Amino acid sequence: METDTTIPTAGAPLTEDGVRDDHARGTEGGEDGVWEELVTSALLGTDRRVPARLAGLPGTDLPGALLDAAALHTVRRRAGLRPGPAAPPPEPAPEDHRLPLPGAARRRLDQLLAGRTAPSPAGRRGAAPDLTELLPQWLALANERGYQAPAAALPALLDAARARTDLRPQALRLAGPRGLWLARLKPEWRFALRGAGAGSSLPDPGDQDGVRALWDEGLFAERVALLGAVRTEDPAAGLTLLASTWSAERAEDRLMFLDSLRTGLSGTDEEFLEEALGDRSRNVRATAAELLSALPASALAGRMAGRAVTCVGLDRTAESPTITVEAPHECDSAMQRDGLAATPPAGRGERSWWLGQLVEAAPLSCWPPRFGGRAPEEIVALPVADDWQAELHAAWCRAAVRQRDAAWSRALLGSPATPPATGPGTSSLAERAQLLSTLPPEERACWVGSFIAAHGLSEAFQLLGVCEVPWAEPLGGAVIDALDIAREAGSYPWSFSGVMGLAERCLAPEAARQLESLTARPEEAEDISPGAGGYWSEAFQRLVSTLRLREAMRAELTAPAR
Amino acid sequence: MGVRWTAEQVLALAPDDASRRAGSKLGTAGPWSGRGSGEGAVWGLCKGSGRVPYRTVVDTTGPAYLCECPSRKFPCKHALGLLLLQASDGTESEETAAPDWAGRWLAARRARAGSAARQTGGGDADGPADPEAARRRAERRAARITSGAEELEQRLADLLRGGLAAAEQRGYGLWEETAARMVDAQAPGLAGRVRELGAIPGSGPGWPVRLLEECALAHLLDRAWLTADRLPAPFATTVRTRVGLPAPVDGVPVRDHWLVLAQYDAADARLTTRRIWLHGAASGRTALLLSFGAAGRAPRLALPVGAVLDGELTPHAGSGQLRAEPGEQFVPVEGPAAAPPGGPVGAALDAYGRALREDPWLDSWPVTLSGVVPARAEYGWQLADADGREALPLTPAAQSRPGLWRLVALSGGAPVTVFGECGHRGFTPLAAWSPQTPGETVPLI
């Protein structure tokens, strides 16, 4: 039963029962009447109101006699209390068939949840690990291993999920069906019943009737989650589901549903997307065009390629081959139907805006033939006439990210040893991080490792964020070496607190051995910032103890359940 | 001694949330050096903010703690961290010999424990130095209490004559002054009662009834004290204890495996009172340990909820007394920590009713409910018998505690076993067990 919060009303939770064998009922007027009379008398004062049963006593004895009677009544009432009627019990929580957590892991969860509310001590972080930062990893790992949360930990888990939205998906998944059951009983936890929490009540994607029923009758959030789940399992079935009701959906819902097709996008979706280019809503049209352009073999990609190659070409007459750019002169209705936005944002010229969008949406495969069979590295290295280089390379970067093209990403990133400002492609670290994310994980780790070895840590934060956890070698070693160099250079560790925090979460636990020697407090040298050595040793201690803790956490979750 | 405490048990020892968190932070190898354990003790050096690390040692058989840090918390975060670290050591570590600084303290402590045990065994040989002087002191105090009780009687009579409504207008000051007079009369039990009277007029609807009830019970205690010499001996002891005289600890010691059911603190402006409920598997007894700390300080005694401890308890004198004193040695033992046997909600109220015959001033009585389901009624949460007929409401205070939600989560709508205090205000749940994990005590406070 889904009880809503009830407003507590004055009720008699315990019943009073004077007629028990061992408590004879008062003789005259009933117990309740006598008691009320005593209370009235006490409230007004015996000088003003004398209880009937005490009439005739001298005034000086009245208070004592009243208290005697009241004491008798009080103890008798308390001794005779009986239970009240039972309210209907809540509907039982659904069964959770996942494994119970091993004992050590359960205690660790309690510890992490208790540490969650710990305020960071002002200023310095000390040598102890930051437990709050480890909770997301712990939750992800526990979910991966298929464990259920211990029932008694559910309130703390829901509280944690309520306070930190980034924890919600994993925390709610661990909380499972009983967590949702509990969340219905307390208004503060209602958040769990929306969106992310709906995941665990979805029908199995293979259950066609269940899927159909929820798709036809479910709430919007449930339907989005359902479509996502079906799409992950069987992309074609997801498309069929969406197509079946497409024309009847509201515009803003269509946008969200269309976005779900990103998962498992393939050529079979093209026809549907091509039709969506004619949608009434501009946002739906733009999203359909974006999805199509990520399919290099699509008709839209072909049209874009046709337009793009007329704008960008090779001038063979120059001393060395040079790329020339002739930006489009108009943005016609066909271009707009293919998703180009005609109006540039304030401060940008129309023609360069159109060019950027064209190149971004054109398949990268159209460029090597255009440039005489050159490979991406060679194309990126060509000079560009008339200051178009920044515009053109930026558009290629966006295209490489959108099309997940590793070869072009590699070309645009260039050598990690080249100083960021003079490299090809882009000098923006955010864009570089995006390009990196299209490379295979080992290559990513190698590139970032070499980048750090060449340029240190000051610009590495964003790049480190896209590397796979735990950091593979040589990346881990490069970070540790760079930290060691920073220490010897006399910096203070808090200049690197961002990287330090990442390292605590992402370094492979085995790195603890390499770090051990750095935790020693060094002799204070003349040329080093005062006290820095001590702070560094503390920071490395924290790093080592966090790595050890993560190793222990992992081991605890691997242990067989009792 | 091979038994180590679990992290949960260690965290349950912490005097408050802040030290629980601080202790957790120190429960990693980082700041520690020179750690070791052996013969029921754990020790180590913890690097703090100072130049020299703090030396920390814990005697887990006590438990007793020694740490060089200046913290007034007890146990301090270093002791907690040390125990947590030991709890998380995956494998049984080698027993080692204690370093000198730890060994000296342990040896001294255990020598004291040994001599205390001998003294208890040797009867009253070590009584007060001058029994005659002690008797005179006791008489003087009794006389003071008598004059205090008479004065309280007078004030209650004045109050009733003028009416409780008038008392509401005069406010809290009147009661504070009377309470101070009771402190002067060396009757802390009466003083506490009077202070509570002062809080009732502001306690919401129905206060005149509650005020009359409590005034009547204060009056009953006054009358009982003034006629104590004519009361049966065990009841007279109860009266003396209620008034605030220390109860003699002269019961027959009970050795048992005691399960720690609950530990919680109540603090007022003057004193922190820690209550620890224990249940003995073999004796079937429920016992209450009290420990006190000055305002803002955690009491010294701390036991981990859910642990089973082998040791001796000596009950206090008096009728229906639950209170007991622990012996020096309290050793954790492995083994099942099953819930005490329980009954339906009706039996719990019966037990409270029976206990009132021995001590009419009892506000509640420790009981275990078995097969009960937390359910929500119009007035709030209750614990209902599984057959869905009768239910006990939770006390208003328990309705808003976080532990309520642990209880609801543990139950999931199915019957559970719950230990708590059952009284005239309702039921206060303190610990629970689910049928799925019957050996695991879930603390609710």
Low-confidence runs of chain B (pLDDT<50, min 5 residues)? 119-126
- The stretches of 5 or more residues of chain A where confidence is low (pLDDT under 50) are 1-12, 17-29, 118-124
Let me know the average pLDDT of chain B: 85
Structural class of chain A: mainly alpha
The helix content of chain B is 25-40%
Categorize the overall geometry of chain A: extended
Class from secondary-structure proportions of chain B: alpha+beta
Note the gap between the termini of chain A.
33 Å
List the helices and strands and how they pair.
The complex is a heterodimer of chains A (562) and B (445).
Chain A: E1 15-16, H1 31-44, H2 62-79, E2 81-82, E3 84-85, E4 99-100, H3 103-116, H4 131-144, E5 147-148, H5 154-163, H6 168-183, H7 208-217, H8 220-233, H9 235-245, H10 251-260, H11 270-276, H12 282-293, H13 299-311, E6 312-315, E7 322-325, H14 333-337, H15 350-361, H16 367-370, H17 376-381, H18 389-402, H19 406-413, H20 429-436, H21 441-455, H22 461-465, H23 475-488, H24 497-506, H25 511-516, H26 532-558
Helix pairs in contact in A: 1-2, 3-4, 4-6, 4-26, 5-6, 7-8, 8-9, 8-10, 10-12, 11-12, 13-15, 15-18, 18-19, 18-20, 21-23, 24-26
Chain B: H1 7-13, H2 17-26, E1 32-38, E2 41-46, E3 54-59, E4 64-67, H3 77-88, H4 100-121, H5 131-162, H6 164-170, H7 172-184, H8 188-199, H9 207-226, H10 233-243, E5 254-267, E6 271-280, E7 286-294, E8 308-315, E9 324-332, H11 345-358, E10 364-377, E11 380-385, E12 390-393, H12 396-399, H13 403-411, E13 416-423, E14 426-434, E15 437-443
Antiparallel strand pairs in B: 1-2, 2-3, 3-4, 5-6, 5-8, 6-7, 8-9, 10-11, 10-13, 11-12, 13-14, 14-15
Helix pairs in contact in B: 1-3, 2-3, 5-7, 5-9, 7-8, 8-9, 9-10
Question: In words, what does this structure look like?
Answer:
The complex is a heterodimer of chains A (562) and B (445). Chain A has 562 residues and is mostly helical. Among the domains of chain A are: 53 residues, no CATH class; 88 residues; 104 residues, no CATH class; 123 residues, no CATH class. Chain A is built from 26 helices and seven strands. In chain A, the strands form three sheets. A two-stranded antiparallel sheet of chain A has the order 1-2. A two-stranded parallel ribbon of chain A has the order 4-5. Chain A has a two-stranded antiparallel ribbon with strand order 6-7. In chain A, a hairpin with a 6-residue loop joins strand 6 and strand 7. The two termini of chain A are 33 Å apart. Chain B is an alpha+beta fold and 445 residues long. Chain B has 13 helices and 15 strands. Chain B is globular and about 70 Å long. The chains are: A mainly alpha (562), B alpha+beta (445). Chains A and B meet through helix 1, helix 2, strand 2, strand 3 and helix 3 of A and helix 1, helix 2, helix 3, helix 5 and helix 6 of B.
